[in-house]
Design goal:
- The chain is mostly helical and 66 residues long.
- The chain has 5 helices and no strands.
- The N and C termini lie close together (8 Å).
- 21% of the residues are buried.
Length: 66
């Protein structure tokens, strides 16, 4: 399971949309599109952003890492 799959799994478990998660991590424009790209594996979030995503999803950053 890659980082994107883990983000998607936890996001759905928390009942968040891609747009809501993007807003929580302060992505201004195209929030849902960016989250979708991470979840599909087109992009990989850098460590600082991965930490923000983990905090927004209330999990350890290690839980999302490969």
């Amino acid at each position: 399971m890659n980082i994107g799959d883990k983000i998607k799994l936890v996001r759905r478990h928390r009942g968040l949309t891609q747009q809501q998660l993007g807003i929580l991590i302060d992505i201004k424009n195209g929030a849902a599109n960016r989250i979708a790209q991470y979840e599909m594996g087109y992009r990989v979030p850098k460590k600082p952003l991965l930490n923000q995503i983990a905090e927004a999803l209330r999990v350890s950053p290690l839980a999302l890492s490969d």
